[in-house]
Design goal:
The chain has about 280 residues and is mainly alpha-helical. The protein contains 9 helices and 2 strands; from the N terminus they run αααβαααααβα. A two-stranded antiparallel sheet has the order 1-2.
Length: about 280
């Protein structure tokens, strides 16, 4: 057996070990979420499981946690990882509002924001701009504590192992698909019994694979897990805390808005194709 084959076999064993440990840890977390209570502490534990699985795998394989791409030498990819999710989510929701799948200005959200900020006497533009600014800075930084648990495992460890044996395209798509499957029980919890479970699973999976391509590109270009952690946090904040709450819904909104509708997957997929082309030209 050649050294190359031995190395590839060892890599596949490492990947299988990581996925096995992750499945075990995630199963415990999903039991608590689905059977006990979907509280934030259990969800937080779930989000930490990829990092813990990567640490355990490294230990069992005789490798150091220090070997993960902790450093960041070029902040350019950090800036881009902030700007891009803001870009595709903004485009997605502008299309949603223009096409009539929802309307900008959910009064219930604006009222709740005003009360939360203690700004009930202020104008709507002041309340909205203040909350978005705070979410864009404080919310994103605070949320990195959660997304980092996922990104240490997925982008910090998993994609680098896959890239040893699979092309960039294969790595980004396969890791994205596995990442999406890891989320499926949460979607089942949200949409089970609604009659639209498969629709939302498909939409979410397309979105996850699309952003995985972009995040994997930035991860390899920066040789760091930090751009992905920031990207993930910005993505979550602008969809979950800004655009979806500020959108007044109608009968067709559920099929287009949020991470489980089809607008973000469509727009993100366009961006993903561009990044696949870039990666191919750059021989990434």
């Amino acid at each position: 057996m050649t050294d190359s084959i031995k190395t590839n076999n060892k890599t596949w064993k490492t990947i299988a070990l990581f996925l096995a440990v992750l499945t075990m840890l995630s199963s415990i977390c999903y039991y608590t979420i689905l059977k006990l209570n979907p509280t934030s502490i259990y969800i937080g534990a779930l989000m930490m499981s990829p990092a813990i699985a990567s640490f355990i795998t490294l230990k069992l394989m005789g490798r150091s946690i220090v070997s993960l791409p902790w450093s960041l030498k070029n902040t350019t990819y950090l800036k881009l990882s902030y700007a891009l999710p803001v870009c595709y989510t903004t485009i997605s929701y502008i299309l949603i509002w223009v096409l009539g799948f929802g309307d900008i200005g959910n009064q219930n959200t604006i009222t709740a924001w005003a009360e939360e900020l203690g700004m009930t006497a202020f104008s709507t533009p002041m309340v909205v701009s203040s909350m978005i600014l705070l979410l864009a800075i404080v919310g994103v930084v605070k949320n990195i504590g959660s997304t980092l648990g996922e990104e240490i495992g997925w982008r910090g460890f998993f994609v680098f192992e896959l890239r040893k044996v699979v092309s960039f395209k294969g790595t980004s798509i396969l890791s994205g698909f596995i990442w999406s499957i890891w989320h499926w029980p949460i979607i089942w919890l949200i949409y089970n019994g609604s009659g639209n479970f498969i629709f939302h699973i498909v939409a979410f999976t397309i979105m996850i694979v699309a952003i995985s391509i972009i995040m994997t590109y930035y991860t390899f270009k920066s040789n760091s897990l930090w751009p992905a952690a920031l990207f993930h946090s910005v993505h979550n904040i602008f969809i979950q805390k800004v655009f979806t709450p500020i959108t007044a819904t109608n009968e067709s909104s559920a099929f287009w808005i949020d991470e489980y509708g089809f607008m973000i997957p469509i727009v993100a997929s366009v961006f993903a194709i561009v990044f696949l082309i870039k990666a191919r030209k750059e021989n990434l």
